[in-house]
Design brief:
The complex is a heterodimer of chains A (116) and B (113).
Chain A: E1 4-7, E2 10-13, E3 19-25, E4 30-38, E5 44-51, E6 57-58, E7 67-73, E8 76-81, E9 90-98, E10 106-107, E11 111-115
Parallel strand pairs in A: 2-11
Antiparallel strand pairs in A: 1-3, 3-8, 4-5, 4-9, 5-6, 7-8, 9-10, 9-11
Chain B: E1 3-7, E2 10-14, E3 19-26, E4 30-38, E5 45-50, E6 56-59, E7 62-66, E8 70-75, E9 84-92, E10 102-103, E11 107-112
Parallel strand pairs in B: 2-11
Antiparallel strand pairs in B: 1-3, 3-8, 4-5, 4-9, 6-7, 7-8, 9-10, 9-11
Classes of the chains: A mainly beta (116), B mainly beta (113).
Chain lengths: 116, 113
């Protein structure tokens, strides 16, 4: 149980284009989803927290107009990187927390974004 | 502000050589301390949650313990497949209803055959 998927697993896009990453909780309802960014050999940096049906809460320094987050249902959250630039290249990971198991976060496999 | 420090940054062990990873934390009211395993290019895999000092949890060759200031992840007779980065995270009262995690920088474990 507690499986989270992400799609795509990797994507290459050109500078100036937008990319959408999907995060799904497959076997539980995720009341809260989190989006992280991870640079090579570094730990996870929380970007934003989203609750189903509400606007996302962004961490300090994260541009909300650049990283659009939508949590439209209890099983799906999306992260759209708008007008991507090479410095947005990174490993993006989502996690989900359910209402029943309030403590643990379960992570997706991550999406490798490369902007050329 | 919650803080997590993990040591060592990297650890190389021979197969069968037991050792411990350390996670020191400061938090204003601990809700939970979490251990995750992360393989290269993949998302973290949940291992344990510890809630109060004195608590211990085991899973195969791994055992996690918790005190009021730190947690240890003991690895007994490790195998090469235990090679991964081990991440420690805390969830404090300051995380509010969202219950965000604050992660340490991880310990990269390599177990040599």
């Amino acid at each position: 149980g507690a499986v989270v998927s992400q799609h795509p697993s990797w994507v290459i896009c050109k500078s100036g284009t937008s990319v959408k990453i999907e995060c799904r909780s497959l076997d539980f309802q995720a009341t809260t989803m989190f989006w992280y960014r991870q640079f090579p050999k570094q730990s996870l940096m929380l970007m934003a927290t989203s609750n189903e049906g509400s606007k996302a809460t962004y961490e300090q320094g994260v541009e909300k107009d650049k990283f659009l987050i939508n949590h439209a249902s209890l099983t799906l959250s999306t992260l759209t990187v708008t007008s991507a630039h090479p410095e947005d290249s990174s490993f993006y990971i989502c996690s989900a927390r359910g209402a029943v198991s309030w403590a643990e976060q379960y992570f997706g496999p991550g999406t490798r974004l490369t902007v050329t | 502000e919650d803080q997590v420090t993990q040591s060592p940054e990297a650890l190389r062990l021979q197969e069968g050589e037991s050792s411990s990873l350390n996670c020191s934390y400061t938090v204003s009211g601990l809700r939970g301390l979490f251990w995750y395993r992360q393989d290269p290019g993949k998302g973290p895999e949940f291992l344990f949650t510890l809630y109060s000092a004195g608590e211990e949890k085991e899973k195969e060759r791994l055992k996690a313990t918790l005190t009021k200031k730190e947690s240890f992840l003991h690895i007994t007779a490790p195998k090469p497949e235990d090679s991964a980065t081990y991440l420690c995270a805390v969830q404090g009262i300051s995380s509010g209803s969202a219950r965000q995690l604050t992660f340490g920088s991880g310990t990269q474990l390599t177990v040599l055959p």
